Amino acid sequence: MIKKISSFVEVYKSLIKIPTISSENKALDHSNKNFIDLLSNYFSDLNFSIKNYQISYTNKFNMLASIGSGTGGILLSGHSDTVDFDEKKWTKDPFTLTETNDRFYGLGTVDMKGFFAFILDVISSINIKKIIKPIYILATANEETDMSGARHFIKSTDIKPDCIIIGEPTSLKLINAHKGHVSYSIEVIGNTGHSSNPDYGVNSIEIMYHVIQALLLLKKHLKQKYRHQDFSIPYPTMNLASIHGGNAINRICSSCVLNFEIRPIPGLTLTQIEILIEEKLAFIKKKWSDNRIFIKKLFFSVPAYECSHQDNITKTIAKLCQLNRTTVNYCTEAPFLKTIAPTLILGPGSIEQAHQPDEYLEKFFIQPTKNIIGKLIHKFCY
Ligand SMILES: [Zn+2]
């Protein structure tokens, strides 16, 4: 046995206490440095080596803790940040771990700072001196915004574990695939003029009408051409989300903007989507040769992800933990981490509580989660 750190609840409490909100709104965005420092100290007390990386041009950090040498082993991964919270809707202090109704309440209890309390508890109770393959623990920054922590990590590391587990709240279901997400804005620029003579100008709403027709054809094409039976909606979806144009009833509309999103299934890449959009809009662009149609990506896109169920790692973990694999509709860091090693998503708590006021972890997840983490470490590192 190595040094036993504080109790599970004490550690859990200390992790929830430190705000690590990531937000596009700069006024709400927090550095995660204090959290990463605390986590680093915990793992350092358990004889792990610590490497912390600052994400360029930010006050955000990733932590990689490792113990053991050689190749293979396991990487247990989680994001260190949380979303913002609505003060009016929370009935409890988001930064105080509150134990009541057989639940632990607090921001990040399930999504997902709590996962590190589980890892620390399991590791401090096993004989770590006997491991023959490395254990890696990764805490990333900015998962809730641009996933820059995971993007940065895969570029900066040379580790090659046998498998990666992301402890997002899957209700302890084994997730081996999810859809991706990409969103675009299309602006059509016309020429304004008095509406009494339509020939004075170029009406951007009329051009947008053709753009929407082309996009709806693409939507149909995606539904017909791509299929993945593991998803409840087994094809890529498109949502036309908002449209704005025009400002006066007697003026020819000079600008019209449409925002839309596509959620690809595994097998449809972000590059393919871009090519398909260009193809579908080509005839409109050709007709209006004077550059009237401008497309730009909104936000940061996440590719679809799959760790095939034929993959040995998926089979091994499903059998070891006696779990059936399934898919989810939310995005994670898996498509990035998967470039290093086969990656699966498996963690305590329900996604239903993530990003919600009074986020909580049901206590019945505690023992099964510790058992699963223990089994995984034994399987891949002993
Ligand atoms: Zn999460």
UniProtKB/TrEMBL annotation:
Its main location: cytoplasm. Keywords: Amino-acid biosynthesis, Arginine biosynthesis, Cobalt, Cytoplasm, Hydrolase, Metal-binding, Zinc. Pfam families: M20_dimer, Peptidase_M20. Its cofactor is Zn(2+); Co(2+); glutathione. Zn(2+) 2 binds at D111, E144, H355. Residues 176-287 form the Peptidase M20 dimerisation domain. InterPro entries: AcOrn-deacetyl (IPR010169), ArgE/DapE_CS (IPR001261), Bact_exopeptidase_dim_dom (IPR036264), Peptidase_M20 (IPR002933), Peptidase_M20_dimer (IPR011650), Peptidase_M20A (IPR050072). CDD domains: M20_ArgE (cd03894). Its EC number is 3.5.1.16. One of its GO terms (molecular function) is zinc ion binding. It catalyses: N(2)-acetyl-L-ornithine + H2O = L-ornithine + acetate. The active site is at D81, E143. Zn(2+) 1 binds at H79, D111, E168. One of its GO terms (cellular component) is cytoplasm. Pathway: Amino-acid biosynthesis; L-arginine biosynthesis; L-ornithine from N(2)-acetyl-L-ornithine (linear): step 1/1. Binds 2 Zn(2+) or Co(2+) ions per subunit. Gene3D superfamilies: 3.30.70.360, Zn peptidases (3.40.630.10). Catalyzes the hydrolysis of the amide bond of N(2)-acetylated L-amino acids. Cleaves the acetyl group from N-acetyl-L-ornithine to form L-ornithine, an intermediate in L-arginine biosynthesis pathway, and a branchpoint in the synthesis of polyamines. This is Acetylornithine deacetylase. It comes from Buchnera aphidicola (Macrosiphum gaurae).
